[in-house]
Amino acid sequence: MSAIESVLQERRVFPPSEKTSASATISGMDAYKALSAEAERDYEGFWGRLARETLAWKKPFTKVLDESNAPFYKWFEDGELNASYNCIDRHVEAGHGAKNAIVFEADDGAVTNVTYQDLLTRVCRFANALRKRGVKKGDRVVIYLPMSVEGVVAMQACARIGATHSVVFGGFSSKSLNERLVDVGAVALITADEQMRGGKALPLKSIADEALAAGGCEAVKDVIVYRRTGGKVAWTEGRDAWMHEIVENESDTCEPEWVSAEHPLFILYTSGSTGKPKGVQHSTGGLLLWAAQTMKWTFDAKPAEDVFWCTADIGWITGHSYITYGPTAIGATQVMFEGVPTYPNAGRFWDMIAKHKVTIFYTAPTAIRSLIKASEADAKVHPKSYDLSSLRILGTVGEPINPEAWVWYYENVGGARCPVIDTWWQTETGGHMITPLPGATPLVPGSCTLPLPGIMATVVDETGQEVPNGQGGILVVKRPWPSMLRNVWGDPDRYKKSYFPEELGGRLYLAGDGAVRDKETGYFTIMGRIDDVLNVSGHRLGTMEIESALVANPLVAEAAVVGRPDDTTGEAVVAFVVLKRSRPEGDESTKIANELRAWVAKEIGPIAKPKDIRFGENLPKTRSGKIMRRLLRSLAKGEEITQDVSTLENPAILDQLGEAR
Ligand code: WT7
To answer: Which domain holds residue 641?
Structure first.
């Protein structure tokens, strides 16, 4: 029997780790249980202790948690601190200025080392330049940059002066960027001329110009441009400035703006179940505490010896918590990568791990699955062809990892020496929530195992009652925790309705995922979203967002979007479309399908492009006019239709919609 079969048949349990064991920060299940018990016994005492031990406070807090306006919770509110001081200055002051903060590898393989002292100088200069332009505490700054040291500098510089940043992933369209600039009320935009990915230069500044021209963001007075490629860009005098020019004459020091722990550190947009993305608002103290604490617990990171590498983009929460803030908050060295895992070949990740002697590697199941395929096709790019002996911990995030991919990762990348840490969390949770601990938790492939100490996660039914282990239900968190979102920017009502619904009693945090706990171990297995949110390559997409984009096309009368399981990307987007004119056939339908794909890429971004588009004369609806989504999901999967379709007006459309384009 292969290893994979035995896992599937016996739910094989893997030891926590051969390499970490006794030296782990949380060593053994007893240590885990003791910490969890401490949190149960004295919740505020537990969090207060961590916040005092982990962060440097300018003014200590006197109260840990304020629940008086629940579910709008406040943590450490009268305490004052600065995120960039915590992430940079304190390590320099402790004598670690010469230590590498970031080892940056560009798309073409060029490596730049940035020490903590370099980072401090660059952040201070840029923070001074922002202040000179009138950017001040509480202002919102949108960052639309490629993976770059400049991206981290821009985020940290905003934090230094108390400005709230909102990073928009470089793959989003001008329309998506415009919506975010308007919603967040940005006063400045930081972008680049172009970005380099897989040997190709892709525009950023021209998309930013388009976004600004689309209206509603007249408050944006400054556009600061990082020169990455030197490619040609249009220039608006008086508004646009080169990043390298404006920092030239600035001072190397910059007094941090000391802010309340509750001051918004950033706003990050994420998809929900309506057409409009939510501005997830995070606090300074809580986010920073948990980003730092989980670096120590989940990744067991030891700043003196570890080299950490998170492959996420700074445009997502993973890049915020585990590139910009977490690794720096604990003074670790990290690798940062500009490019893509398949360029110049599919061995790029393994090559970089070997070259930089990475010890902790954190990536997404989608990347693992695509690299499995590539290494089956070509032994040269197989991880076994590289010296990966520096690795001691492997992490995964973003979507459920299938046991096959888990075991492949464990056996081929870690060489069966490193635990695979499957971290369940979300944009809204700010940091890890349910995850094994290296050196403590016995591992079961496909399970994110147990909640971290202090995280009161459980599974309930539709009324908010806890269900017994072994029974599926809704994943919730029973008590507030410091790194949770504080609000949906500008929409407190949506915050309450989305995350603390009255149906569950108004006090349970609703994650939006289904889950089941193992009968014996209590281990959690995540069963995917229970709302209209898709997860494509670990990226969240709202079906409604894609539907609205499609119906905005002049050809389209109606559209419904569902997800379909996909071997590589986890889920794939399938769109069912009714045109205003008659249903297209043959070459014409291929042509229009391609047009619509390009349209969605322009409206939202290439990540939202439907893999399949199916045209029908109509959509299957109930008598009351509701689209039968379950039926569409079956059609998307190519399943036989077992549902009752007797109420359908025109059953022939089922044949039409079964055909992929
Ligand atoms: C959704 C959150 C967490 C940062 C990246 C994605 C899914 C995430 C796991 C995991 C199973 C997972 C959930 C969650 N998800 N990690 N380890 N196992 N599912 O953040 O874009 O906010 O998406 O991703 O469905 O709700 P996000």
So the answer is: 537-658
